[in-house]
TrEMBL record, chains A, B:
Residue ranges of every copy of the Cyclic nucleotide-binding domain listed in the record: 27-98
Domain HTH crp-type, residue spans: 158-230
Top-level taxon of origin: Bacteria
GO CC annotation, single: cytosol
Pfam families reported in the protein's UniProt record: cNMP_binding, HTH_Crp_2
Key words of the record: DNA-binding, Transcription, Transcription regulation
Taxonomic source organism: Sphingomonas aerolata
TM ranges: none
Name of the protein in its database record: Crp/Fnr family transcriptional regulator
Single GO molecular function: DNA binding
SMART domains referenced in this protein's UniProt entry, alphabetically: cNMP, HTH_CRP
InterPro entries documented for this protein: cNMP-bd_dom, cNMP-bd_dom_sf, Env_Response_Regulators, HTH_CRP, RmlC-like_jellyroll, WH-like_DNA-bd_sf, WH_DNA-bd_sf
Length: 238, 238
DNA sequence: CGGATATTTGATGTCTCTCAATCTGTGTGG
DNA sequence: CCACACAGATTGAGAGACATCAAATATCCG
């Protein structure tokens, strides 16, 4: 029950939550102040450097988390031990599997990131008392399913050029500000390949091709500037 | 509250539900008798012939359903209007999107099928009163996500032969009885191609190759007999 | 049995992977 | 401040797998 005016609530809320940039998007958004205090009680804020692993595939599935900032990837091992990226998580997203006892995906931080990490068991217990939280998780699961099916469509049918174009548009949507279409990719060429199902060389060639045609500029190793969005969209459809 | 002994419950339950083969697997399994009567009240049993469309992509998203028997596919349009299969639904599965206002997938019946069809709005309303139902839907959504990511891995990394082998094992698991590894595919070669991201010709050639190597037999157009499961599994891993 | 549809088989081309070398940019130590 | 070293990225040449186009069967159903 929301028992106090805003000015008072700030006193009772954990300071980190009151100032949190994903306070209204993430799991927390579903909770009234008392619930938020409880969630904060079971969770722990962690800052992880790029490359750090949050969950190892095959290990006991002990934790879930809310992404506060940064980008994470979920990976599964394909044949020959090669790893493929099967999902990305951005600020506000929920990562981890609430119900599996053994993790079947490795979750790794791609850029420096802040997370709110929760023990899975405790979070599961909270779920029973907070139907709105469960509803949000259902929404998120369906959103992730939608994403996965979008990638399926791409992996199954699109040529390399169209994959790269689709990928750039998707990254621009998720990372870029509304204004200028300038952003940094949160991952290396090798990781782009692991997501799009192609080799690093093919990724590079397609990027270069877009650059030569004046569709994008590629400043530095990770920078992207979309110069001609219409043509990029056309390339993504083909 | 489960208020009566089994013998009595049969009287109050709709006859179709009492005798239903997915009574303990599907959405219905989460409901006590009174809830089941309510669910039956908003739903309608429909028998659909193979090829029938349940939901058109782009149309208002009006219904969801439980699959009682048969197999359904969820499709999305790729480039050039070609359609790709992004999900399958078997007996006991839930199909449809509870929250989208516009359907973004076409759902089509692959074999003759029986469904319990529910208006989306009414089902959504029931959800608030039945947390167990919501929990099951969350489980199902995560299961579908797991499936989608499995297909992603396949589409991204596996060669044609490995895709076919994986597909056959998966179909055997979902359709076959425990005993003899004999079953009929619920779909045409063309649909297999639309699921695995390859042409009908490549599907055919890979099937023939497995047949020639004595791994499977292919009686009739749709029949499959797995003769050497170990070798099929080996082919699926490659 | 006959026609339509689905599947198999064949010949050829193209795209992407593989292997290999060069280049760029990033960070370090002199 | 510059030279150097290293990892990541780009570019090139060649081979292989799958797509495409085209034809010949097989299967299904009335």
């Amino acid at each position: 029950m929301r028992s106090s005016a805003a000015g008072e609530a700030i006193v009772t809320l954990p300071p980190r939550c009151a100032a949190c940039n994903v306070r209204d998007d993430a799991l927390c958004a579903t909770l009234e102040d008392a619930g938020l205090v409880a969630l904060h009680g079971i969770g722990r804020r962690r800052t992880l450097p790029a490359g750090q692993v949050l969950v190892w595939s095959g290990d006991p599935n002990a934790i879930c988390a809310t992404v506060v900032s940064g980008v994470l990837k979920a990976m599964r091992a394909g044949p020959e031990g090669r790893e493929h990226i099967v999902g990305l998580a951005f600020a506000g997203d929920f990562v981890g599997d609430l119900f599996a006892d053994t993790a079947n995906e490795t979750i790794r931080v791609m850029t420096d990131a802040e997370l709110c990490v929760y023990p899975r068991a405790a979070l599961q217990k909270m779920l029973d008392a907070h139907p709105a939280m469960e509803r949000l998780l259902l929404h998120r699961a369906l959103g992730a399913l939608d994403d996965a099916r979008m990638w399926m469509l791409m992996l199954g049918r699109k040529a390399a050029g169209a994959r790269i174009a689709t990928f750039l548009l998707e990254m621009a949507r998720r990372m870029g500000q509304p204004g200028p279409a300038r952003f940094d990719l949160p991952m290396s060429r090798s990781e782009v390949g692991a997501l799009l199902g192609m080799t690093i060389e093919t990724v590079s060639r397609q990027m270069t091709s877009l650059k030569r045609r004046g569709v994008v500029a590629l400043p530095g190793g990770r920078g992207v500037i979309i110069l001609d969005r219409a043509q990029l969209a056309r390339a993504a459809a083909g």
